[in-house]
């Protein structure tokens, strides 16, 4: 049963690793062409922000933003200000850009549906026999 799980390729790899361990005193990690060393990956993933605009938005800032979004007419102006301001944090700017795109899509759907239902209702009224 053990022969099924231990084929020659695995045994050959194990022998190569033990040779590397014997020669160098430690085991060499397997480096494929697509793999980066762990230190390089961690440096890439956990880079310090380049500026204050790269830092994440805090929970308090999001709460204030969401409370301001509850005020009619102010919310529309603030969405454009936060989306296209060069002084706003990048994550907040991207969020409001996506929100504006989503709002534009919904607006187009509403206009199309109102046009379709308006034509349908007007033709129904014109064809009605009172």
Q: Can you describe this structure?
A:
The structure is a single chain. This protein starts with a helix and ends with a helix. It has two domains: about 1-45, no CATH class; about 50-125. The protein is about 70% helix and about 0% strand. The longest helix has about 40 residues, at about 90-125. Helix 5 packs across helix 6 (about 90-125). The protein is mainly α and about 130 residues long.
Topology:
Layout (H helix, E strand, L loop, with lengths): L1 H4 L2 H17 L13 H8 L13 H10 L5 H11 L5 H38 L3
Helix pairs in contact: 5-6
Attribute tags:
mainly alpha; 130 residues; elongated; 2 domains; 6 helices
* Low confidence ranges: 9-15
Q: Could you spell the SSE succession in H and E letters?
A: HHHHHH
Strand content: under 5%
- Given the helix and strand composition, which structural class is it? mainly alpha
Report the span from N to C terminus: 88 Å
Instruction: Tell me the helix content.
Output: 55-70%
Strand count: 0
| Shape field | elongated
Note the total helix count. 6
Largest sheet: none
Number of domains: 2
What radius of gyration results from the CA coordinates?
Answer: 31 Å
Oligomer: single chain
The average pLDDT score comes to 80
Short overview:
By secondary structure, this protein is an all-alpha fold.
């Amino acid at each position: 049963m053990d022969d099924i799980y231990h084929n020659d390729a695995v045994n050959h790899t194990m022998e190569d690793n033990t040779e590397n361990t014997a020669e160098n005193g430690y085991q060499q990690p397997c480096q494929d062409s697509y793999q980066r060393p762990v230190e390089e990956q961690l440096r890439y993933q956990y880079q310090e922000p380049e500026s204050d605009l790269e830092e994440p938005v805090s929970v308090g800032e999001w709460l204030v933003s969401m409370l301001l979004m509850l005020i009619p007419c102010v919310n529309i102006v603030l969405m454009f200000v936060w989306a296209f301001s060069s002084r706003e944090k990048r994550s907040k700017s991207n969020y409001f850009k996506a929100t504006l795109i989503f709002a534009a899509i919904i607006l187009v759907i509403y206009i199309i549906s109102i046009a379709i239902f308006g034509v349908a209702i007007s033709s129904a009224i014109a064809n009605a026999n009172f």
